[in-house]
Specification:
3 domains, alpha/beta, eight-stranded mixed β-sheet, Rossmann fold, N-(1-d-carboxylethyl)-l-norvaline Dehydrogenase, domain 2, 2-enoyl-CoA Hydratase, Chain A, domain 1, about 700 residues, binds 1,4-dihydronicotinamide adenine dinucleotide, about 10% strand, globular, six-stranded mixed β-sheet, binds 3-hydroxybutanoyl-coenzyme A
């Protein structure tokens, strides 16, 4: 009937199969024949029941996101679902893979849903800054209840088939042969006879809704929304499903959808959706890959331990190497403790913990790395130590093994040159805690072979990381831009702002925490050591470190931390220190607004990003956004620094930078030529024209 949709018959059961690779999104070229097919089948007396299924790896994964922001071509999904609901004969959605967003909404337009045991069902629209716009907020609560629907819709996290069955979202679960089972299910239902109730007319989930408990849950969720509109709108729409008649709730959902989809937050989040998928692509990516069986990790400290856990969690056997048995015991002890905390919290079963721990092999002998296909070094941040380690690796690693460094700042070309196989060397810059943080900067050195890089990118996906391929420079993309932000945060302290005031401006902007809280969490000594090595200074942070104030780990940093507590308490001593240091430099305190704090810290950060793009360290502006959102907590609703720069206006950013440059002469304020060009073209693309 069309390339994207096939119609088959199995006796009196019609099977509509959507075939729109890769994920069967509901593009216009699917919606049009689907609508036509449903009308034909509805009116065909020889059809007793209809099954809607999908070809390929998944059921419908949602609306076609590339169509958002453009005029919607008819028929819309809502009209298709409304048509489905006019069909008197039984309709059955046969779900395998993922039924997401508009895909699940279409399934909710059917009388019945059957699923493969491995299927997942969810409404992830909130992650795109919108809410389900095809009636999902109104139909889902009718089946699973308002509170469960609220949790699914506000989190955007899908549930498995078994859970969906238990919750009443799915009517039957089958292992294998889904279409055949769905056809038999549909035939049997048709034989028993109707009438068949569409979900819109059902209300078993809405009976006995405790609105007070619902509102209490919404209040908790609202606290975590960090300025994002979509979670709040999702909650409001689900509440409407309880308090308003079906059609009114549906109209209210539509109005909220239209507002959100046209807003900056959703534009930003859609930008990030595609940016994350784009970031791992690079010229020559699809070269042959190397096989990764066993992974070696050198150093069982903060990073090495977390990296080893990330691989064990991803199913890889890991050899963990330390300098002594004592260090190894300490490192393994921390790993075991971390897994046990997950068991206590209920996020990991005891069996899963034991299985993961069984993947570890400890060693103090480099010869034990000989059977590893990928070896990641996470030892002290010192070029001499790193070179010594790579020298030993060169001697023992098997030919073709990928040799990676987790260095934060050091020159990976120099590290690679210290081996006889620079083509096998690259950077794998994990973020702390490495078993939790999503971002992985994959650093391509001058001589890194394309197949080594491709293998690393694939491996990153397999252990659940968001990979961004970057080039070599001091601090790569993330830490280099962080330095630009950090120097201005310090300068603002000297000019009269307090750490608390600056951190609040950041959290109000949507960051999970401000720069000083983050510094205290990560450990102020890391930056201090790096600055000393480079002959740089940060007067306040350096003085705090000289006093042994390294942040949370010492109970004192920019803030005070009560024994064992993580919440910061303002410390008058730090504020006195800041005023003393300012006085020594003849800087008078002045009132500084939250707006100025954001501009002074984030405009130089954007400017550094422009320089990184100019130098080709990042391939695209969107790669920088992916780094900042996944590695540093840049608010998703603002799309990352480079996207946000477009919202702010490059012209305004340049004007402020030039003003501060005149005032201070500092290089961080000298506008990058690319930023100037962006002001003219409105795009970071090198070939964009105004
Ligand atoms: N629209 C358009 N393109 C989509 C898409 C969608 N809904 N979902 C995925 N794609 C594209 C990706 O951009 C990617 O393209 P590329 O190969 O050119 O980079 C390709 O499909 C494969 O995607 P992934 O790399 O993400 O494949 P995975 O197998 O890792 O994951 C998935 C599959 C779980 C389905 C994941 O793609 C996903 O989560 N997709 C988005 C689901 C979603 O958000 N659905 C809701 C859409 S909004 C909606 O439905 C509104 C409605 O309420 C009206
Ligand atoms: P750490 O001090 O916690 O751990 C280093 C570990 O390496 C120690 O356990 C030490 O015993 C071991 N080690 C030292 N020399 C060794 C050798 N020759 N052979 C085997 N083991 C050896 O340090 P951390 O924080 O884990 O940093 C490690 C690397 O990761 C550094 O290059 C750092 O810049 C980088 N990094 C650190 C981040 C952080 O937030 N801590 C974030 C990203 C990268």
């Amino acid at each position: 009937m069309s390339n994207s949709l096939k119609l088959n018959r199995d006796g009196d059961v019609a099977i509509v199969t959507i075939d729109n690779p890769p994920v069967n999104a509901l593009s216009f070229h699917v919606r049009e024949p689907l609508m036509q097919a449903l009308i034909e089948l509805r009116d065909d007396p020889s059809v007793a029941a209809i099954v809607i299924a999908c070809a390929g790896r998944t059921f419908i994964a949602g609306a076609d996101i590339t169509e958002f922001g453009k005029p919607m071509q008819q028929p819309e999904l809502r009209a298709i679902i409304a048509t489905l609901e006019t069909i008197a004969k039984p309709t059955v959605a046969a779900i395998h893979g993922t039924a997401l967003g508009g895909g699940l909404e279409l399934a909710l337009g059917c009388h019945f849903r059957v699923a493969d045991t491995g299927a997942k069902l969810g409404l992830p629209e909130v992650k795109l800054g919108i809410l389900p716009g095809g009636g999902g907020t109104v139909r889902l609560p009718r089946l699973v209840g308002a509170v469960k629907a609220l949790r699914m819709i506000v989190s955007g996290v899908p549930i498995g088939a078994a859970q969906a069955h238990e919750d009443g979202l799915v009517d039957a679960v089958f292992e294998g042969g889904l279409t055949t089972h769905a056809v038999n299910f549909a035939r049997e239902i048709a034989r028993k006879g109707g009438p068949f109730q569409p979900v819109r007319d059902r209300d078993e989930g809405l009976k006995e809704t405790d609105l007070a408990a619902f509102d209490a849950e919404v209040a908790e969720l609202a606290k975590k929304a960090r300025g994002l509109d979509a979670p709040i709108a999702c909650a409001r729409a689900v509440r409407n499903a309880v308090t308003l008649p079906f059609n009114e709730a549906l109209a209210a959902e539509r109005a909220l959808f239209v507002t959100l989809v046209g807003g900056d937050q959703s534009r930003a989040q859609r930008h990030l959706f595609f940016a994350e998928r784009e970031a791992a692509k690079f010229p020559g990516k699809d070269t042959s890959k190397r096989r990764i069986g066993r992974v070696g990790v050198i150093g069982a400290g903060t990073m090495g331990g977390g990296i080893a856990m990330a691989f064990a969690n991803g199913g890889y056997p890991v050899t963990l190497l330390e300098t002594s048995h004592e260090e190894l015991r300490r490192g393994m002890g921390t790993i075991e403790k971390n897994y046990t905390v997950s068991v206590t919290r209920g996020s990991l079963t005891e069996e899963a913990r034991d299985e993961r721990l069984s993947r570890f092999k400890g060693s103090t002998d480099y010869a034990d790395l000989a059977d590893c296909d990928l070896i990641i070094e996470a030892v002290f941040e010192d070029m001499a130590v790193k070179k010594e380690v790579f020298g030993k690796l060169d001697a023992v690693a098997k030919p073709g093994a990928i040799l990676a460094t987790n260095t934060s700042y050091l020159d990976i070309n120099e590290i690679a040159a210290s081996t006889s196989r620079p083509q096998d060397v690259l950077g794998l810059h994990f973020f702390s805690p490495a078993n939790v943080m999503k971002l992985l900067e994959i650093v391509r050195a001058q001589k890194t072979a394309p197949d080594a890089l491709s293998t690393a990118v694939d491996m990153a996906r397999r252990i659940g990381k968001v990979a961004v391929v970057v080039g070599v420079c001091h601090g790569f993309v993330g830490n280099r831009m962080l330095a630009a932000r950090g120097s201005e945060s310090e300068a603002l302290l000297l000019e009269g702002a307090t750490p608390g005031q600056i951190d609040k401006a950041f959290t109000d902007f949507g960051w999970p925490m401000g720069p000083f809280q983050m510094g205290d969490l990560a450990g102020l000594d890391i930056g201090w050591r790096n600055r000393k090595a480079r002959g740089q200074a940060a007067v306040i942070a350096d003085t705090l470190c000289e006093q042994g104030r390294f942040g949370q780990k010492t109970g004192r940093g920019f803030y005070l931390y009560e024994a064992g507590a993580r919440s910061p308490v303002a410390d008058p001593e730090v504020e006195t220190l800041i005023r003393e240091k300012a006085a020594e430099r003849g800087i008078a305190a002045r009132a500084i607004s939250a707006g100025e704090i954001i501009e002074r810290t984030l405009y130089p950060l954007v400017n550094e990003g422009a320089k990184i793009l100019e130098e080709g360290i990042a391939a695209r502006a969107s790669d920088i956004d992916v780094v900042w959102v996944n590695g540093y907590g840049f608010p998703v609703g603002k799309g990352g620094p480079m996207f946000w720069a477009g919202l702010e206006g490059a012209g305004k950013i340049i004007e402020r930078l030039e003003y501060w440059h005149r005032q201070t002469g500092k290089d961080v304020f000298r506008p990058a030529p690319l930023l100037k060009r962006m002001a003219g073209t409105g795009s970071w693309e090198p070939d964009a024209t105004a």
